[in-house]
Amino acid sequence: MPNDQQSLAKTIFMTQYDVAIIGSGPGGYVAAIRCAQLGMKTAIIEKYSTLGGTCLNVGCIPSKALLDSSHHYEDAITHFKEHGIEIPGEIKVNLAQMISRKQAVVDQTCAGVKFLMDKNKIDVYEGMGSFKDATHVNIKKNDDKTETIEAKNIIIATGSKPASLPFIKIDKERIITSTEALKLKEIPKHLIVIGGGVIGLELGQVYKRLGSEVTVVEYMDRIIPGMDAGLSKELMKVMKKQKVAFSLSHKVKSVERKGNEVIVKADNQKGEEVVFKGDYCLVSVGRRPYTDGLNVEAAGVKLDPKGTIAVNDHLQTNVPNIYAIGDVVRGAMLAHKAEEEGSVVAEIIAGQKPHIDYNLIPGVVYTWPEVAAVGKTEEELKTLGIEYKVGQFPMRALGRSRASMDLDGFVKILADKKTDEVLGVHMIGARCADLIAEAVTAMEFRASAEDIARMSHSHPTYAEAVKEAALAATGNRALHV
Predict the structure, then answer these.
(1) Would you say 432 and 395 are in contact if contact means Cβ atoms under 8 Å apart?
(2) Cα 124 from Cα 20, distance rounded (Å)
(3) CATH superfamily of this structure's domain 175-285
């Protein structure tokens, strides 16, 4: 057959879709489901053998599994006796079983995503997706064969990878990222954590509970620097009680491995060199957008200098039929933010007019106590010149907190000084990851502090702290302090 006829045959039989999504993390698979619900023929492309992306495989889900397992162990050795629970013999950690349970949770969750793809009749392609042009995607499979599909619209949802520092060589054995920290074969004697953000603190707490000495080295003058300063201060105070060591305002300048020892050198605020020695070093200095191998140039899609894909308010790239969502675009790198964007893009393609209020995307740190926030911080309100009032209530004043022995933390509500509209809610304490949803709901409907204060909250619950903080914000009316 002549070449032009072969080309024509390929074009005729090429699979065509309304939407093709590259990446199957929370943003990608939710976009796929919503597209299918809206009647579009949909394909999703994933280079790994399991769906779910970073979040389900090596991020949110496995880290929460280890946080829960290590929390149970910590409770058993520190609190069970006080609760009247006596366990004969020594309580031991079986790290292999802990990691195995974590993997079982991951496997079950990823299988659930595959079930949802099948249920919604979404075609799943396993292989590395890359642009051939603005409407065609090449899929390179594990056997090196390449298949090409055509789509009227394409959504980039390739997520992010752990970032590092230029002088650090990640060997994945002793100098590790969060991915390796989720499957260690031994409990570190001394884990040095570079970075006092969400990932470093969560995994640092896991191994501290299991018996590791943990030192957090942070460049900024406080941990979780993107959150309200009050939360940073309280979390560090609590984690210091848990015997986690902190070195703030330290600029790491070298990380070197010698056998089974890792040596980290940093300059402190005075410019003096400080040396940290441990058997493992977790590099958790953030994440970077992952567009490697995507060949966006072939489609004409532009990246900004940081490697982020530039999009407009409709998450549309400079190429009208190509969209991008999640960690590859601007904004917080959060799974639930990616999910919202996935749904929004599907609805935009379908001709609807959805919206996202990025101010109401909550942020959570899953340490214990948990940290959660939504809306503006005090620092942001001061910068914007907005006059506000503060209502704060301590968790230890709650009957529920005393019953569970979870006394640390507080809820803080920031409200407009003139209108009483809630502008930000910041909390640290037991189950704050769940409690923050009340604040998001209230702020979505532009509630005032008075509105929340007038709502009945079940007793005894941690949620009562939200009501009490709202009472405090309306004029020192908190009842239980």
Answers:
(1) no
(2) 10
(3) FAD/NAD(P)-binding domain (3.50.50.60)
Between CA 481 and CA 477 the distance in angstroms is 9
Residues 432, 371: contact at Cβ < 8 Å?
A: yes
- At what angle are helices 198-209 and 60-78 packed, to 10 degrees? 40
Predicted TM-score (pTM) above 0.85? yes
Cα 437–chain centre separation: 16
Q: Report how far Cα 42 is from the mean position of its chain's Cα atoms.
A: 26
SS3 345: helix
Kindly state which CATH superfamily the domain 3-162+289-356 is placed in.
Answer: FAD/NAD(P)-binding domain (3.50.50.60)
Distance between CA atoms of residues 1 and 12, nearest Å: 15
DSSP H helical ranges for 43-197: 53-58, 60-78, 95-119, 178-181
Give the fold, CATH level 3, of 360-473. Enolase-like; domain 1 (3.30.390)
Each residue's pLDDT tens digit, 129-166: 999 999 999 999 989 999 999 999 999 999 999 999 99
Catalytic residue among 72, 83, 459, 480: 459
The reply to whether 175-285 shares the fold of 3-162+289-356 is yes
Instruction: Please confirm, yes or no, whether 459 is among the known catalytic residues.
Output: yes
- Joined together, the tokens standing for residue 333 give 């790198």
Query: How far is residue 122 CA from its own chain's centroid?
Result: 26
DSSP structure class, residue 329? S
SS3 helix, strand, coil % of the chain, rounded to 5? 35, 25, 40
Q: What pLDDT does 3 receive?
A: 54
Which residues are registered as beta bridge partners of 262?
257, 278
* Overall residue count recorded for the chain in this entry: 481
Please check whether residue 228 is in contact with residue 379, taking contact to mean a CB–CB distance below 8 angstroms: yes
Kindly report each contact of residues 253-256 with a partner whose C-beta sits within 8 Å and lies 24 or more positions away, as own/partner.
253/167, 254/167, 255/165, 255/167, 255/168, 255/169, 255/175, 255/194, 255/281, 255/283
Q: What is the pLDDT of residue 4?
A: 53
Report domain extents, the chain.
3-162+289-356, 175-285, 360-473
Closest CA to 211 of 192, 191, 193: 191
Convert the pLDDT of each residue in 36-62 to its tens digit: 999 999 999 999 999 999 999 999 999
Query: Can you tell me whether residue 260 is helix, strand or coil?
Result: coil
Question: Residues 319, 321, 325, 328: is their CA dihedral positive or negative?
Answer: negative
User: Could you give the CA distance from residue 431 to residue 437 in angstroms, rounded to a whole number?
Assistant: 11
Query: pLDDT tens across 323-379, in order?
Result: 999 999 999 999 999 999 999 999 999 999 999 999 999 999 999 999 999 999 999
Contacts of 256 (CB under 8 A, 6+ apart): 262, 263, 265
